[in-house]
Every structure is written in structure tokens, then in C-alpha cells.
Amino acid sequence: MAKQKSTASATIEEPACAPEWSDILRQMIFIRRFEEATEREFRKGKIGGYLHVYSGQEAVASGIITALDKGDAVFTGYRDHAHALSLGSDPKGVMAELFGKGTGISKGKGGSMHLFDVEHGFYGGYGIVGGHLPLAVGAAYAMRYKQQNGFVVCFFGDGAMNIGSFHEAMNMCGLWGKEGMCPVLFVIENNGYAMGTSVERHSALTDLAARVRAYNISTEKVDGQDVFALRGVADRVVRQMRETGKPYCIEAVTYRFSGHGAADILQPYRTKDEVEQHKHRDPIAILQNRLREICGLGDEDIKQMEDEAAERVAEAVKFAEESPQPDPRELFTDVVAEHGPQPVNI
Amino acid sequence: MAKQKSTASATIEEPACAPEWSDILRQMIFIRRFEEATEREFRKGKIGGYLHVYSGQEAVASGIITALDKGDAVFTGYRDHAHALSLGSDPKGVMAELFGKGTGISKGKGGSMHLFDVEHGFYGGYGIVGGHLPLAVGAAYAMRYKQQNGFVVCFFGDGAMNIGSFHEAMNMCGLWGKEGMCPVLFVIENNGYAMGTSVERHSALTDLAARVRAYNISTEKVDGQDVFALRGVADRVVRQMRETGKPYCIEAVTYRFSGHGAADILQPYRTKDEVEQHKHRDPIAILQNRLREICGLGDEDIKQMEDEAAERVAEAVKFAEESPQPDPRELFTDVVAEHGPQPVNI
Amino acid sequence: MAEKSYRDAIRDAMMEEMDRDPNVLIMGEDIGVYEGTFRITAGMLKKYGPKRVIDTPIAEAGMVGTAVGMAMLGLRPIVEMMTVNFAIVAADQILNHAAKVRYFSGGQVDVPMVIRGPHGAGVQLSAQHSQSFESFYAHFPGLKVVAPGTPADAKGLLKTAIRGRDPVMFLESAALYGMKGEVPDDTNFTVPFGQSRVAREGRDVTIVSYSRMMQMSLLVADKLSKEEGIECEVIDLRTLRPLDMDPVYASVSKTHRAVVVQEQWKPFGAAAEIAASITENVFDELDAPVVRVTGEDVPMPYARNLELLATPHEEHVAAAVKKVMYR
Amino acid sequence: MAEKSYRDAIRDAMMEEMDRDPNVLIMGEDIGVYEGTFRITAGMLKKYGPKRVIDTPIAEAGMVGTAVGMAMLGLRPIVEMMTVNFAIVAADQILNHAAKVRYFSGGQVDVPMVIRGPHGAGVQLSAQHSQSFESFYAHFPGLKVVAPGTPADAKGLLKTAIRGRDPVMFLESAALYGMKGEVPDDTNFTVPFGQSRVAREGRDVTIVSYSRMMQMSLLVADKLSKEEGIECEVIDLRTLRPLDMDPVYASVSKTHRAVVVQEQWKPFGAAAEIAASITENVFDELDAPVVRVTGEDVPMPYARNLELLATPHEEHVAAAVKKVMYR
Ligand SMILES: Cc1ncc(C[n+]2csc(CCOP(=O)(O)OP(=O)(O)O)c2C)c(N)n1
Ligand SMILES: Cc1ncc(C[n+]2csc(CCOP(=O)(O)OP(=O)(O)O)c2C)c(N)n1
Ligand SMILES: [Mg+2]
Ligand SMILES: [Mg+2]
Q1: Do residues A185 and A74 lie in contact, with contact meaning Cβ atoms separated by under 8 Å?
Q2: Cα-flanking dihedrals φ and ψ of residue D115, to 5°?
Q3: D61-85: per-residue pLDDT in tens?
Q4: Cys bridge to B204: A215, A318, B320, C13, which one at CB 3.0-4.6 A?
Q5: Residue A185: pLDDT above 50?
Q6: CATH number of the domain that residue B186 is part of
Q7: What's the fold here for domain D2-183?
Q8: Is any Cβ of chain D less than 8 angstroms from the Cβ of B127?
Q9: What is the pTM assigned to this prediction?
Q10: Residue A8 falls within a domain, yes or no?
């Protein structure tokens, strides 16, 4: 039997009011409005390709990422806007990236699935499901090798846990962790579905974390709609990981309110009713209600946050809209550092 | 927590003497002598490429495979001679394959790593570690789909459990098993090492079966040197699997007496002493001693078995030696069923 | 004959074969309940049930590997890749298992299976989702590689693939899914592998291509005919393994000039093989070097303007045609 | 200068770079305690310790992917593949991650890493363990593909690979491991990428090759010179991506005849690219079609007699040379 413990987090003690919580609420509201804007702009044809929004899952990125310090690194999949924004990426650059503009944070070369902002500790944005997990493990090794104090957070979906690279990465991290060489905080964003396939239909055992424990990595299941709970766990775990250099895994149970991607209109795999039920546990509403209680947050405060979010989103869209397309010469840069490509058609 | 049970097999009740046990002993002795011959012939240059022998692990293949019926299918890795022989493949054809002769069971095209004998239910012999596991799962699905009564046995090493295809196969089998569509008996041949890397050094958690349970597959740890124990478990499990169509996993704890392959001479990863210690638990000696007790097996009987083995091995070597090389035209056959290759140099 | 889309032709091929042979089944990610990202499999779960229309986890190596096992035991699995890009994750299962088990078993097993899905550049799907793999897979003996350019071929070749005894990489052009064309009604209509087709006759220049680039070449040929009186002969290879070069040689012996068009990156792409073979076999017929029209040698960028610059267009084909005519 | 084996040249390159730069480390299966299946890494664990000489589980995708992550964070990992065949299992990590992350990040990261190991046919290792992948990897922008044919190049190119900023597939010829040759002593000796080399001068026919087949071509050239007075110029490409064709064009402009030699399967192999490029660029210089000498288009059989028939030999190269000379 896996010796590692599985903790179902006990209800977190009601934390005291702190200004930070308002910042987190402000961030989550902003991210929601940002995502809604991307959906709008996609429908207008301003954003192309695949678009995967994060609405409903905001507490996960915000709860974890606000616990990080400079020097920490984040890797995630293609549903990556919230992670970049939580890390402090400029929303203008993020929106411009989605618009495929030269001012985008990946110079317009990556798009929605490949946001990158290394300066802010964001190491991307990957499109092959589960493919980024080994990268995160290697990054953590590098940090310890260089005797840095940082660690790595690696987000991934429930569906990603079925692909081989997940397992290879977990085992290697479990092994390296024994030597204190693998401080990765794995965060399962368990939103119940891989595209249209529910966890019950894609995983032989729905206790997903059992797989992680099988690699000697401790796990903890957290209510992914409750940013208090997530942040509480993150604070505790992060401190411990910096010290031990060992991995840890949080299974955040959450839900995605929108379709899998912008093309997922019909959603034949779930009922409207199911979605509505989950909207009753909107992470933003949950946080608002808590802050009303403990901080005396009022309607006015919320309105102000909403207004500010709307304004910042509008600004980002305007910036993206007005930015120029990438210079055609950019086609050939960043392929390699040396011995770049020979143009064939130009 | 994985809901599946992990059973450490209770000591099997001393079984009654039955003629079958002598047959099994005869088979195990024969396999040992056969493997010794292959090592000899390799050193003589009669066998080429990689050669991985099974000495020390005989109880595993024999204990499981003697429990099978016609219509069952076996898949394994490159350490595959014993599996073919246990299934009833002609030792002459097996030896001829190792000699690269046209009379080999894979026509000389496969060699040691790719023995095949579909008529006897042997679906090979694969060289990419862990690569055969998905094949076994698909084969089991096919049997149930065709409403056949058979099932699949899939052998693999401890080291193979670290590669992605192992996990993908396990999860799919766990899922399909829920519908009664995946009767695979997974047999971990845990001989303590992947080449020169011990289980402790290649797996984050040495309870390897924990990984299997994480896919909703029940596991059982068995003394891999004790053919009674193995056969006992196999008999029970096989009956049950034919009925339920669900997978099951046996972790057979065993030891390889020879080097990983014929090139592994120095064995810097283990001491001579360690090997000697394990030779005290030689599965053949263990079975002989048991049969002396329960069947009154005598020195004479054993000598007869040894003589017979020596004779059959000599016969196989002679046959292999005298067989012709494959016809040069065989180079181009069996590539595809239709639209075969255009020769370029001939 | 009926007018059918390329998409429906693929779907019809699968359903007709599933009706005909209970050993045919299909598996893939989100092909059942979700009905397929390109809706090729829409309705199939309902019709054939979950044992024959299998929603798999995200596990490409597992999907392909289980299909190999099924095929060895006598089923005829079709594996839908959500896009063929993801088949890289299963490269070992395709190249080392599906393509080789017949050989190293000395011919003891058949491996009748098809791996199919949309292939090539889409619209702004960026670097990991916009690749062309035909030369990659076609290098490996033991596989078949098919790249249909018309609805009729999509149907006829897919039926051949499903009925065959070998593993097939069936590369569909997502950009052609909506394209319509005449497709024979006969449920026994098939198109054999290894037969290139003269898609358009012409006397001046031979254009060799396949899939979407073949369709683009036809447009260029028509335009050049109308506007400049240049008559291109367009050869549609249809299958890259087996590769039928004889019609190409025949055509080049007539036109003495050849252009090869592919969407892939130029270096070590399929056009290199075609060009090298032409030169090797009908060198004396050539009045000009064979010219390749290809994509730019860069990972696919997301920005639409860059993406458009990364893929070959009609004007590039036209320019190549003129080049080999020294115009 | 010192006489060194190809094996020791590789080992020296790694150790010198590890001595020079603490960010260089090596990982692979059984490279430490076991000391490497080809003993390239023998003694390295002892010298550099387990943090820099990492024995990994059997997890090629994990190995390559973790190396990509290390490289992005500033280390310079070397990944030893026990044989390059196993890199197929990691194809997605190589092609979709290592080769593309610089591009889709808009140039925010370097990916300085080397994947190296023995490549090509061995002796009776059969179908899954005897493959040549140079055209496979060289098709992908974002990668470098190196195939040294001498001890000096093995060392100099590997040092360039380790010091560089891009992912490199470093394909060693196991058959050459024991081969000796002069290697400069200077620890700063490197060989730049993208510079083909005239390995032997000659006036009659240009033979283009790399790695072991280049060495075989040199033997053939000497024999033809002695026995038939035919003088072959042998060009060693050294790196297939970047590919430096200029010396080839210069040579063909002199000899007017070219033969390309590779061990790979013919269809869609590296020689196709070379042959197509020659024709495309110096067509008017050619007095004969470019001829390719290649392996047979079959998975590698185990039986020694068949295996020998499956790979190209000296007589095939000699025959091709005579063919382009119309002799
Ligand atoms: C290897 C691979 N296979 C398939 C896909 C197509 N795909 C993109 S997202 C996705 C579902 C992933 O689900 P999950 O990991 O749960 O993440 P979520 O979308 O729920 O955030 C699939 C199948 C892919 N991108 N990569
Ligand atoms: C994908 C892959 N990587 C590496 C190898 C080389 N290799 C062959 S056997 C082996 C060790 C396997 O160990 P295990 O699975 O425990 O089986 P055992 O040899 O002990 O029977 C390795 C690393 C391989 N054949 N395939
Ligand atoms: Mg999900
Ligand atoms: Mg083992």
C-alpha cells in the first residue's frame, strides 16, 4: 500500500481579514472578465485557433500562485490565461498574444495555448496534454542543482493523468525528491472532465491522487472553489517544500463553467442543469461572501472591483486591437539560436 | 486510497502429490539447461545480438503458464525463451531462431528477443521495454469482443513499470475491465533489477503493485521462487478472470541468476555474495525438495529428468546447427501483406 | 454517384465497413459521447454501441498499442487521432510495434488497423498542432501512408485501408473536410493503394502532389491555362507508401519538367523523395531541375499573418511552374 | 594531437565540458552504477557524483522532458540514449517540446541540451534496435542533427553541441566506437555545425555521405583509385541540420557526377534530400542522375545472412560510382 498519506483538508479555520484577500478577489474578478472578453473576441473573429477559458476554476490558480515568491516557476497546459495573469503578466500583452500581435507576450508566435512570461516566472503554456510535466520536474531539479530557493508549480487537468509522460515525470520526481532534488507542487485541476469525457469514464479509479501516492508523493484533496482552503494549503506546503526539496500534490476539485474550448457549443456530455448546479459554487461568489463576513466587504467595494476589471479588460482589448501584426521577418527568428532557417518562398 | 485489495498470499497449503508436478519440474530443469546452452552457444558465436536468459526465474513462467488452456494468449518482453518453451513451442525451433536459421520459430527474423509461436498462444517477444503491454490489453479486449473464453497473460519486468505505456495500458485495462472486457493477468517479474538499476533506485515507491491498484486492479504478491505458490494463485485467478473479464496482477518476487544479458559480465551493481545468497533459493531446488517430501521423488528421478533435458537440449542445438540459413528472398517477405518492398541493392 | 463532402465520405466508409464486418470498430478520444471534434463520428456511438465506438482516455500510445493487439487477434480497429499531431506521442507503438510485428514474428500475424485523423496546418493552431508527418511515417517499411485529396478517394482509400491486412496511417486534410465531390454509391467501391492518378492532363509541366496541395495545384493549373496558356499535368499520388511513381515518370517523359508541391517543411520532406526519384529514373527526359514548393522551415507560428507566410500558396506553385519553364 | 578512439573522443568531450562548466550534467539509463552499456560513461559517476551523473528509470519521455526543463532553467543536460532507437519513445518530447519551446515562447528560453547515443544497425539486434533516424529528426526545425564520422569530429562536434543553445540529436555510430584517429589535444577544440568537409579529394565522382557510410565510402574510393583509376571525391556532411550543401555543389560542379550513401531505408531517407538539392541547385553541372545507395526497405532481420543483405556494402557504392560514370 502506498505509504504516503492522503489528507482530505479539514475545514480551514476562518482566517482573519487581511488586505491580501481583497487583492485576490480583485484578481479573480478580473480574470473572469478577461476570459469573458476573450470569448467575445473569439466570436468576433479577433482571436483564432483554440481558446480554452478558465471560468469557474479561478480559485485554483489564484489560491496557489499568490503564495509564490519571485524565483518560483509555473508550468501549465493550454488553459493558461489565468496562470499568466495571476503571476503578474501584463494583461495587455496577454490579450495581444491572443490577438496574434507582435506585442503579445510570446510575440504572437504562441497564441492562447502557449503564453510565456519567463520574467514573471511563467514557463508556459503547452498544448500536448501532459507533455509539460517532465519539463516541470527537470526545472525543479535545476533549481536545487543551482542551490536556488525556488520551487516549481505544475498545473494539469484530470485528463492529463492518463498519459504516459505524467507517470514518467511523477516517478522521476518521487525518486529525485528522496534526495531533496524535486520541489514540484503538482496541482491537479480536477474539473471533472477531459474535454467531453468525465473522470469516471476516463480513469479506472476516480481517486486520481492514488496514482500520485504510488510514487511516494503526498497528496491532499482540496475544495477547488474555495480560495481560502487552497491558499491555506499552499502557504503551508510551500514553506515545507522549499526546505525539503520534495514534491507534493494538491488535487483541487473544481468545475469549468464554459465549454472545453470555444468550439464546444453543444456540450452533449453534460446537462445544463449540472452546469447550473455548479454555478451555485462559483469561487468568486464564495470569496465575496466570506469577505462580506470577515472584512465587511460591501456592494460598493465589489462594484469598484468590477468597474476596475472592466476598465482593465477594455484597455487590454484596445491595446491588442491597435497593436501591429508581427513583423514578417519574425517568421524566421526564434527557431534556433544559431543556424536559422533558409526561407524557401520569400 | 486504492480500494483494491493487496493480498500477500498466505502460505499455500501443502498440495497433494500429482503427476503434474513432476512435469513442471521436468520443464523447469529443461528450461534451465536450455538457457545454459544458449549462453554457451552465444560465447561460441553461434547466437548473436542480445541474449537475455531466464535462469532463476523459471518458477514464474512455469507456475503461471501451466495453468493456461488452449486459446489463451501470452505476451512478454525480450527475456522470452522460457515463456515459449512453457507454452509448448518446439525447443528445436526456438534454438534455431536463436541461431538465426530459417527453421526458427520466427523464421530467423526475430531472434532471441522476438520469439513468436501463435499456434501455441505465444504472441511474442518484444524489445522495447513495456511496449507490449498495450498490445496485451487490446488482445484481451478482442477475445471478449469475439466472446471467446480465453484470456491474456502479460509478463513484464520491474523496470518496465516506469515507462508511460505501462500506465496507459493499465488505466485502459482497468476501465475496460469494469465492463468485463479486459481479462489480462499481469505478471510482474520483479527480479529486483532493471539491467543494473535496483528497484530502490528506479522506482520512487518499492511497493510496485501500488501503481497497479491505482488503476482499480487487484494485486497479489507471491514468492516467485515457489512454483507451488504461483500455480496456486494462477489456478484460482484464472478461473475467476475467465468469468469476470477483469484484469488481475501478480507481483512475483524473483531473482535473475545470470547477468542482464550476455554482455553483462562485470555486474558492478551487485555483489557475488548477493547472487550466491539468492541461489540458495533456486526455484528448481525448492521444487525438488518439495517433491521429495510429498511425492517421494528420488535422486534417480531427478537424474532421469536431467538426462532427458540434456538430451533434448543437445538435440535442439544440433537441429539449429544443421538448419540452413533463411533463404535470401526471405529478406523481403513478411514486411507487409500487400505491396511489398522494392529491392534496392539486389 | 452522389455529391458528398470529404468528411461524409470518410464517415460513410467507416459505417459501411462497420455494417459489413463486425470485426471493425473505432476508438479514440471523445469520438462517442462528445461525437468527435470534427464530428466525423457523430451518431456512431448510438448506432454501434460502446463496444464498437470506444471513447478512450488521453493515451495515444495506449490507443495505438491496444489497437495493435486487437488487430493481431483478428479485429480491425480504426484509431481516430483527434489530430494526427498527437500520433507522435504514440510513435513507438506505430513504428516499432504496428509496423514491425509482422516481420519479426516471421509473418505469424496480420495487423489490420487504421490510424486516421486530420493532418497538416489548420488555422492558428500554432506549433504543436499544425504539422505534416507524411515523410516521417512513409520512411518506415511495414506501414502504409495514405493522403487522399478528393471525397471519392477519401472513401475508396479508407475502405481499402480498413479491409487490408496492414497498418495504415490515413492522413486526412482538415481543410478539405467540407469539400464536395462525386462519390460512387456502390458500397463495394474501393480505391487500391499504390496507384497514382492523373488528376488533370497537360503537356507543359508535371505537378506532383497529394491531399490539399494537390487541390491547390489544380487551381493553379486552371489559372495558368486560362491566363498564360500553360498546360500543367497534375499527378495525385494518393498513397505515399506504397508510392506509385510510374505515372509521374510517364508524365515527365511527356512534359520534361516537374514541380513537386507539399505543405511540409522542405528539408527531408516528401517532395525530396519524389524529386530524387524523378531525377534518378528519368534524368534524360528532364529539361529543367525538379523544383519543390514547400512550407517554410519553421515551427508553425500562431499569428495569422505569419502563418500565412509559413505555408505554400498558389503563387508559389505558379512561380515554380514558370521557373521550370524558364519563363 | 593524440590517437584516440571515437568512443574516447566522445567521453573526453563530455568530461572536458563537465570540468569546464558545472551546468553540464548527464543522465540516462544505467550510465552510472552500471557504467554504460557501451562504457562511454565508465568512471564518470565516481568522478562527478550522482547529482551530475544521473541514473534514470526506463522512461525515455521523462528523461528527455526533464532535460528540456533543466535546459530552460539554465543547465546543459546531456541525455544518453542506451540506443537512439529508444528515443522514438520520447519523440513527442523531442519534436514538440525540445524543438519548439523556443519558438512558441517567442524566444524567451534557450534549450541547450544534447541527446546522444549509438545509432544505426548493430550486429543482429533485429528490427526494434537497428534503425537510422537521421532523416526523421532532421525534418524538424528547431533541432540540430549531427552524425560524426571520425573521432576528431565526434569530439569537436559534441563539444559544439554541449556549448550551444539548441537541442541536438547527436547520432553516434556504434560500429565506429572502436575506430581510432587523430584528435587535437586542445580542450577548446570544437568543430562548428553546418560545415561539410571534403574527406577525400577526387576529380571523377562526388560521393556524399556521413557517419559510418562516409568511412565506407572512403574505403571504396581508395579501392577504386587503386584498382580502376577512378578518383572519387568524398564529402562528409557531418551535420544534417544545419545542412551545408555548398561544398557538395562545388564538388559536383567539378566531377559532374554524384552518389549519395546512407544506411537508412531508401524511401524518404536523407539521401533523397541530398539528391534533390543537388539536382535543384546544380542541375546543369550533372552528367548523370544522382544515384542513391541505401539499405533495403525492410525492418532489420535477425539472421546474420539476411542482415548483411539489408545494409549497403562497399560493392554497392562501387557499383553506383561506375553507374554514374556509365561504366
Ligand atoms: C496528447 C494529446 N492528446 C489529445 C489532445 C487534445 N486535447 C486537448 S485538451 C484535451 C482534454 C484535456 O483534459 P484535462 O487534462 O482534464 O484538462 P481540462 O481541459 O479539463 O483543463 C484533449 C483531449 C492533446 N492536446 N494532446
Ligand atoms: C524503451 C527502452 N528503453 C531501454 C531499453 C534497454 N533495456 C533493455 S532491457 C532493460 C531493463 C529492463 O528491466 P526489467 O523490466 O526489470 O526486466 P528484466 O530485464 O529484469 O527482466 C533496458 C533498460 C529498451 N529495450 N527499451
Ligand atoms: Mg479536466
Ligand atoms: Mg527486472
Answers
A1: no
A2: -110, 120
A3: 999 999 999 999 999 999 999 999 9
A4: A215
A5: yes
A6: 3.40.50.970
A7: Rossmann fold (3.40.50)
A8: yes
A9: 0.98
A10: no
